[in-house]
Amino acid sequence: MDRSGPAKPQTTIFTVMSALAQRHGAVNLGQGFPDESGPEHVIEAAVAAMREGRNQYPPMPGVLELRQAIAAHQRDWYGLDPSVEEGVVVTAGATEAIAASMLAFVRPGDEVIAMEPFYDSYKAAVELAGGTIVPWRLEAPAFRPDLDRLASLVTGRTRMLLLNTPHNPTGTVLDRAELEAVARVAIERDLLVVTDEVYEHLVFEGRHEPIAGLPGMWDRTVSIGSAGKTFSVTGWKIGWATGPAALVDRVKGVKQYLTFASGTPFQYGIAAALASGREYFESYLAGYAERRELLAAGLAGLGFTVYEPQGTYFITTSAAPLGYEDGMAFCLELPERCGVVAVPTQVFYADPEPRPEVRFTFCKPLAVLEEGLERLRKGL
């Protein structure tokens, strides 16, 4: 019998970099959470729910008002029509939706193809389900998917394609032709698709298009969304999964044994958030476009190779022109040397070999970005 006790949580690069930021009083341009709070009407809707006594367990799939708002969002933005009763489940952030989807559909020995570099929870969730993650790498400098490579990665053990568009950390947004090519592979090889779309409203070039809306894809796709990025309330941890009833029911079956339900008053707040008019989303995007332009130009002026993102609020750069081939070494040195935190993108790979790429975030006020750039100028 294994008497070593429960597994210990790993110390992630984000924990390390946050500690370094505190130690050196650094500007944190690494972790992807905004410094600003969410819109006032969203905060007030959650406060009102608390004061009205809505502080107990919500229904396991989520409060009705939020499920209705999510279904309406999918319909109004993308023409999708998930059932409010059977095709929507509210989760503790997108991370729970991802984990529940992996546990619902991945069996021991299954393979899951995922776009690499990838959010670190993907590999953990797949392995927790007993599966193996198979990287589908996006290569610098374009970070576009190699569609021929995708077809060659599919084996008899492949169970699922795990997509992320807009893509963290590269900012790539899959276009219609690329999505159609992915859909052909999924249909021909009878694969499930789970798609992480948490940055759906942060697309600066092109447009976000859910793969679930392509012919033949609705019945095999689970779409995952989140309120944290769009409404600057990452601490509320309100996400969701939508799709055909048969698939969402499987996700619910796992979710009930993970968190069961959470964040009752926050769910009412996000129901109000999703009902925001188009002008909110347009203003939100315009504000981040200005920040993207500022940070991209500033980093390029400092000598970084900048891969300007189509979407998300991250910028991938290369520190090689500054003499660093190891982004990890560069990022560990940066807080003390410059008073700035960034994240090495090698931590988003299955085999984190040294790479010169470094990720910065622009989900900070303009003044904070300017301060970070000034510190980099002085330190570098």
TrEMBL record:
<dbReference type="GO" id="GO:0008483">
    <property type="term" value="F:transaminase activity"/>
</dbReference>
<dbReference type="InterPro" id="IPR015422">
    <property type="entry name" value="PyrdxlP-dep_Trfase_small"/>
</dbReference>
<dbReference type="InterPro" id="IPR004839">
    <property type="entry name" value="Aminotransferase_I/II_large"/>
</dbReference>
<keyword id="KW-0032">Aminotransferase</keyword>
<protein>
    <submittedName>
        <fullName>Pyridoxal phosphate-dependent aminotransferase</fullName>
    </submittedName>
</protein>
<keyword id="KW-0663">Pyridoxal phosphate</keyword>
<feature type="domain" description="Aminotransferase class I/classII large">
    <location>
        <begin position="27"/>
        <end position="376"/>
    </location>
</feature>
<dbReference type="InterPro" id="IPR051326">
    <property type="entry name" value="Kynurenine-oxoglutarate_AT"/>
</dbReference>
<dbReference type="Pfam" id="PF00155">
    <property type="entry name" value="Aminotran_1_2"/>
</dbReference>
<dbReference type="InterPro" id="IPR015424">
    <property type="entry name" value="PyrdxlP-dep_Trfase"/>
</dbReference>
<dbReference type="InterPro" id="IPR015421">
    <property type="entry name" value="PyrdxlP-dep_Trfase_major"/>
</dbReference>
<keyword id="KW-0808">Transferase</keyword>
